[in-house]
Each structure stands twice: as C-alpha cells, then as structure tokens.
Amino acid sequence: MSDGVLAVPRRPRGIGLGLGVSRIEWGLDAAAALAIVVEVAREISTGSWVTLPVAVLAAASVAARRRLPVVAAAAALLVSGLALLTPAGAVPLWVAAEVCLFSLALRRPRHIAVWFGAAHAALLYVGAVIAFRTAPLDPVALILPVWTAAVVAAGLFLRTNDDYVRALEAHSRSSAAFRDSEVRHRVDEERLRIARDLHDSVAHTVSAAAIHAGAAERHLTGDPERARTALRQVRASVRTVVDELQDILVVLRSPGDGAEDEQGAVPGLEGMTALVEAMRTTGMRVDFRASLPGSLDRSVGVAAYRILQESLTNARKHGTDPVRASVTHDDRTLSIEVANPVLRPAREDEGGFGLIGMRERAASVHGTLRVDADPHRFIVRAELPLHTHATEGPQ
Predict the structure, then answer these.
(1) Is residue 5 in a domain?
(2) Which domain holds residue 36?
(3) pLDDT score of 346
(4) Is residue 391 domain-resident?
(5) pLDDT, tens only, 195-209
(6) Which contacts of 127-133 are long-range, i.e. CB under 8 A and separated by 24 or more positions?
C-alpha cells in the first residue's frame, strides 16, 4: 500500500469469475452429477439401458462446459432432444442440460446465451407437448421453457454483476495507479525545488565566501586591514548560508507544498540592490539599473531575484567584468538582462545546473529565458509576466 492509497488486490490468475459465482458453479456441478447418477441408477434398476448413452453425453457436456461452453450448450440441446424420446422422459438429464446453459450465459456474449436458451426452451416446449400429449397452455408444457428462461436469466444476471465488480476493481486499480503517479510527481517536484533552492541561495553565498577568503589570504601579511575586512565578509556570508539553510528547513518541515513559505523566505525585487552591492564587495564591477513596477506578484519577484542572482554568479565564475545588469518593465512584462564579457568563446551549456535552474524559475511563473553567447559576450535575457494569474490556463 502506497502513501494514502489503498491497493486493490488483483484477481488470481486462472480464475475467470468471482468467488461467489465459482461456488455456485461447483454446487451446480454437484447437482448435475447427482441427477446423472440418479438417472443411470434408475435405468439399471429397471434393466433398461436406453438412456445410458444420453447420460454419458450429458456427463461429457457438464465436464466440458467451462472450457467449451458453446459446444457443451449444443450438446445439451441434443441431450434434451434425446431425453424426450426416452420412455420416461429422462427428466434428471434435463438438469445437466440446464447447467450447461447457465455456464454458457456466464462465459459467452449475451446474444449467444439468449439464442441457445430460446432454442432449448422451444425444443422442450414442443417435446413436452408431443411426448406428454398435453395442451399447448398446459402447465406441464410451460414449466420447462419457463424454467429454462429463468436459468439463462440467472446466468446473465450473475454475469452482469460479475462484470460490474470487475469494472469497479479495474477503476480502483486505475485510480490507485493515478494517485501513486501523482504522489511520485509531487515528490519529484519537491526534490527539484529543494535542489534549485540549494543551488540558488547556498551555492551563491558560499561562492562569495570563497572569494572573500581568497582575498583575505592574499592580504594577510601585506594589508592586514583589508584581510580583516575580507574575513568579516566571509563571516557574514557564512551567517547568510546558515540563515538560508534554516529557511529551507522551515519550508521542508511545514505542511503543504511549500510554495508560499519559499516565497516568503526569499527576498524579491526589493533585495536586488543589496544583491548587487554584495557582488561589488567581491571586487566585481556591476552596472545595475532597475525600474520596478508598483504592482507585482510575489512569485514573479522571487523568480526575478533568483535569475539575477544566478546570472551574476555565473558572470563572476565564467566571465569578466564589467557586468551590465538591468531590470525593466512595461504594462505586462518584467524583463531581466545580464551581460558580461568573456575571455574565450562561451557555450550555453557551460552553466551547469545554473541555466537549467533559471529556465525552471522562469517557467514556474509562465515566463521565458533565453541565453545568447558569442565569442565576446554572454547574455541572459528573461521575460516574466507581472501577474501570473493573467497567463494561467488549463494545464
């Protein structure tokens, strides 16, 4: 049983019908066998052997009715016809014939069962009228076709009920499989979101700390004051990492999908200026211009912040300065662009998981992200809607 999903047991292989129907059939087998034995015993006691071949045919029909129901039903018609020709009518053999009709109704299409049932009822009615010399509406003549119709109807009813139960089981299995798939999908989404958060927040801050640590090492003997400043930056970066990890842990421990907690834990556009200043403290020259809209969805602000953060981190790792970054907007769209020179021809796939994460960030708010790389520059451009609800539609 998966989380929150009740698994429906599969029907054992080799069992074509429900357990209740199978028990009924075993009971009918016993009744048919008893009827055949009674008829054979009666024939032996009277010294007549006329119905023994018919009894053998009836026994063979009952034995074959599960594997060959149509053949068994056809043989049952023959058994009924021959039984009418016997001196006593061989009524017990009709029981075996009716059992074969019941089995046919359970295992073959309904129109076949109805056809055989009608033929059997007509044969019994005509045979009873002729053999017993009864009036056409005599109860003796009518009881046999009515009984046959009841047997076929009972088989069809149980067949319909069994089909209904099977359909319910199939629907339950399908629903359980769908729920399992949905759970796996949500788990994968959550895993991806955690990985993206770790990459966006922690990796960026740790990278900045590494740069400050390198600066402290270079100035440790020649310029102790600059070394102390760099070490203070390292300490601040480490504290930031701890705070961000704690925020992520809070999101993981909170109920729900974590989307709202995530947006509350990460600064949006209001933190972009502070982000650029933090990058400048590492020695990077950044030309940053921003024009922010008065109304913006929080999720879009978070995505914009993360895209700018990752773009600046990539520029510091793989490019040179000065870096030109801008955030602009019109009535419907927020645009982020970060461009930096490169020392060698840049490739779009050099960003590792960073570019993948930025594309996922843009897509999460129904935006787009494009990367342009040439021998001299690497440019990231993102277009995000100001309000995600305006672009949401059937998924």
Answers:
(1) no
(2) 19-175
(3) 55
(4) yes
(5) 666 666 666 677 777
(6) 127/80, 127/81, 127/84, 128/84, 130/84, 131/84, 131/85, 131/89, 132/89
